[in-house]
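Q&A log
Question type: sequence-to-structure
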Amino acid sequence: MTAIRGRVWAFGDNVGADDGIIQFSQVPDLGSYDVPALKAMLFVLLDPDFPQKVREGDIVVAGRNFGHHSHPHAGVAMRESGIKACICESTDSAFIRKILNVGLPVVPCPGITALAETGDALELDLAGGTVRSLTSGRSLSFRPYCEGMLQVWSLGGLAPALRERVAAARQPGGELAAEAQA
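Response status: OK
Response body:
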């Protein structure tokens, strides 16, 4: 199942990872993820009450240049606050990968800010490359996630996906098992 349904939180253009999603200069320990601190600062520069209003299963919709100055702390803050996906007008591939590596999908989809606003409901299909407003019924297409990206997302991040790949390779008939026999 690659569909995600949720309530929308809409933000505008140029929301940076370090000065909009969270306040990177206020992160207490860059060597680890201080989850309570990250959750407390999530989107507060855009909506001071956001940490109290966000719910499990919510979806972030953002404008152009979402997540610039990317780092994984922003993804951890969103994921741990219950956000299930981010869909934006545009972002860079580094942000997509860094945030997916902690288990949160980010999807660029031109036209999304005209499709959804705060409070609407969306359904996003990562494998099918579609997003549909459950509020208006309108839909858009985006580049679907490839199999490897879907695996990283479904397993909750890159580390669990790599553990699974290594375990599979060690099984009889797996790549590592075949190399050991050669």
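Response note: The chain has two domains: 3-145, 146-182.
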